[in-house]
Structures are given as C-alpha cells and as structure tokens.
Amino acid sequence: MASLLHALLLCFAFGFGLLITSVRAAIPTTLEGPFDPFTAPFDTNLRGNAVDLPDSDPRVRRRVKGFEPEQISVSLSSHYDSVWISWITGEYQIGFDINPLDPARVSSIVHYGQLRYPMSYEAEGYSLVYSQLYPFEGLQNYTSGIIHHVRLTGLKPSTRYYYRCGDPSIPAMSQIYNFKTMPMSGPRSYPKRIAIVGDLGLTYNTSTTISHLISSKPDLVLLVGDVTYANLYLTNGTGSDCYSCSFSDTPIHETYQPRWDYWGRFMQKLVSKIPIMVIEGNHEIEDQAGNQSFVAYSSRFAFPSEESGSSSTFYYSFNAGGIHFIMLGAYIAYDRAANQYKWLEQDLANVDRSVTPWLVATWHPPWYSSYKAHYREAECMRVEMEELLYSYGVDIVFNGHVHAYERSNRVFNYTLDPCGPVYITVGDGGNREKMATEHVDEPGNCPEPSTTPDPYMGGFCATNFTSGPAAGKFCWDRQPDYSAFRESSFGHGILEMKNETWALWTWYRNQDTGKEEGDQIYIVRQPHICLGQQESPEQGHSDI
Q1: CATH number, position 227
Q2: What residue range is the signal peptide (predicted)?
Q3: How confident is the model over 308-342, as pLDDT tens digits?
Q4: Which of 160, 204, 275, 292 has its Cβ near the most Cβ atoms within 10 Å?
Q5: Which residue segment(s) compose the domain that 234 sits in?
Q6: Is 276 a domain residue?
C-alpha cells in the first residue's frame, strides 16, 4: 500500500510540474552547455548495408489500374487552416519515343470532411506532367504520370479529416485516407512529435528508417533534402553507389526517373496520413535539356510558396502550432541582393514570437560539420545568411547532406554563443551512398581549401580560420568545440516542443530495435537574454 501511495503521489506531482528537477537531471539541457565534444565509436558492421530496393520489390510496384490515384501525399500550407493533397494518375513512360499524357484528361478532385460518410466538402485543384529529356544519342527520355495538387481550405485546427482523391467522373477515386491538421498557432500549442530526416533514398536502410519513424508516431515529417537518389542511375536503370566513379564519361549527369515513382509508392503508407514538408538537396538538381533542373522536385511536391510570400519552390515558410519553420534553398541565389535573401528578411520581420515562440530553419548542406565529407562546402551561404538568422534569434537549424549525425553546441560564426542556434545534421536517412565516417580533425583528413566549394552554391569563401583554437588552419586538430556530439549511424530524429522555451530533441539509431535514444537533449530558449527572441506574455512558466 505504501508503494502504491508513493506511486500515486509521484504521478500527482509530475502532473503539476513538481518533478521537473528530476526530469531535467536525467536528460541534459543546453543550459548546461557548452558540452565537451564527444564522438561515438563507429560500428564497422554498418558500413555495407546501403542497398537500393529493386524495382521488383512489391513496395515500389504499381498497384492501381487505369487512372486510379497513387503516390498520395499530404503537405501543409502556411497555416493550420489549409493543406495540400497530391497524387499521380496514369503511368509514366520511359524510352526513346515518349508521348506525354494530357493533364486535362483527368480532373483533380478531393472529397473531404470530418466524417467518413458523408464527406461534406469538395475541392478542385490543378494538374501537370513533367518530362526529363536528354538530347544525346542512346539516352532514354521520361515523362511522368499526371501529377495532381489540390489545396483544402477552411480547416479547423487539431482536427482529423477524412478524404478521397481522384476523378469521380471516370470513376477513379482513391480509398479513404485521413490526416490531422496542425494546432492553432500560440505559445502553448504544438504538434506532439515532429520527425526530422534527411538523405533518405530508397534502400533497405531507408525501409528501416521509415519503419522506426512510423513507430515514433509523428504529427509532421520534415525531409531536409536528397529524396530519391534517382541521379545515381543511368537512364537505362543501371545504378552505382558513386555516379562519378562509375559513369565518368556520360555526356550529362543522367537520372533514372522511375526511382521517383518507386519512392512515392513506398512512402504513401506514411505521407498519405502524416504531412511531409520537403526542401531541395543536391540530388534533386537533375540537369536536363534546355538548361532545366530540379524539375521532378518542383513538380511532384506541393509547397506553400505563394501562401508564405515566396515566388519559388526552393524556399518557403509555414507555421506548425507555435513553431515557425523556414525552409531555405542552398542551390539558388542566397546573397544579399537575391530574391531569397530579401524574402527571408521580410519573413523574419513578420514573425511574432508571442504567437510562434520557436523559430526553426532548415536547408540541405550544413554550415557546422566536422566530417570530411562536404566540409565547409556551404561556407558562402553561411557568410551571407548567418548574421541575419542570428539577429532574429533562430533557435534550431536542421541540415542533411553529410551522411551521419552531428549535434552542435550553440554557436555563431564558429564561436560558442549561448544565443546561437543549435545545429543538427541528420543526413543519415539510409541512402545508397552510405555513411560518412571520416572527420577532418583526424590526421590526413583535412581537405585542400580549393577543393571544398560546390559549383552549384556560388564562389569560394572557405579560408583558414583567423582566430580561436584553429587560427591559421583550415581544420581543427581535434574535434571542434562547436561539435557537441557526432556518430556515424543511420537513423531519424524526433522534435517535441514542451512549451514556449523547452523542446526535447531525440535521435534514434536504426540498429537499435527498441526505443533506446542515440542522443537526447532539452533545447532551451532564453528570450530574456538573447537578442531577437521576443518574450511572449506567458513565458517564464514551465510545465514539461
């Protein structure tokens, strides 16, 4: 009886926030930082497991007939009262003589409502077809099925809606799916769990990542670039872990566009129910005839660009409860004269931290990474944008690109700063190119500075450090102070906002079968001391 009474008292105390001290003691917080850099040992058994799912895998094969919808997904608009439903009808074509489908053949209709039967509302959208064309002999061209995007409006916050999509006149409608809208924006209103993943591809490791992610029961998924890795293939379907190593003599960097369709089919079980928000990575460039690029990326996903004042699919923003997310493009102009920079200035100026206390930014290549792969590749973007993001008090930054996991201490301009963002690299989704395992602070791993720029990202900005422990050098000779934790493993992360100043970040590794945390920390905002973090009227209370 005494033990039962003790348990009841503990539950009662926790419900009123009286056990916060013990909770915080068990999980570190950024208030205790900066932390001494730590590197988790690398498990060599993980190195060779990134094998693509073949086109014979039932999870990627077409299972619908005629113009029935497939590759169904949900994405958010800029606010809770609107979402996008996307899908594809008809079959793609690949070969030397292709005939694109006519989008006008099939309507873009969504029936939806808060009940399965009857569905009270109908919305109509638009459709398109894209092609991937190569003006070289022997290369096959591709044209997609009909891609549909329909925006649903007038939705209630934190509400489950049921929907069917397709063309009822054929008839060719999907089965019934459902999604839940985001909470209304406010300092105590948040989605419960947000999954963050990058550099997914479509391998057996990807399958494990998504299976674990689904078991985390997220309300929203962020994919921080590098979606399908279709550009690791020739147009005839021959693939490689390293395109430049295997196919160095091709007249253009080819892609095998059906991998996009495979990926859409594989992901439907998740993204037909849970909204997914995507930003472009370098593997989405996909050059083709007419100097076109990023065509598959820009065509297949719906983006709240117009709703957030952006003129581009490469950068946009949206709210999810009390979080304002900014999705930035590293492979489009980002300098101070560019449209993206001007848009970012305006978007940041419009953020009301009393309504959306949390400010989270994402883009693909990391600014702060200590891995050899892509080291300081995005330095020009950092030079142009870091001060602006810092001045508005961005709390967390998520990146991919480097195929490993790394979490930083709070940092600004390579200097530890209690008001700088926490940078988290999650490029460990499981893609075919395998993991990054080498660090620049290890002997012989520091690259020649002139080799670091990415030609798609602008000029050369990465030079030797002028101050700090690495002054006069291009790399640190030990794990950098800004690097709090790093590990080469595949996995995914979950972000949970507990209130307007406390958020729990957890990273899960694929090799762990249960719910063991690979890394976990409370990220704590300090608006009372940090520039740009406007204090909301209710801040100062804690109820985690």
Answers
A1: 3.60.21.10
A2: 1-25
A3: 999 999 999 999 999 999 999 999 999 999 999 99
A4: 275
A5: 189-531
A6: yes
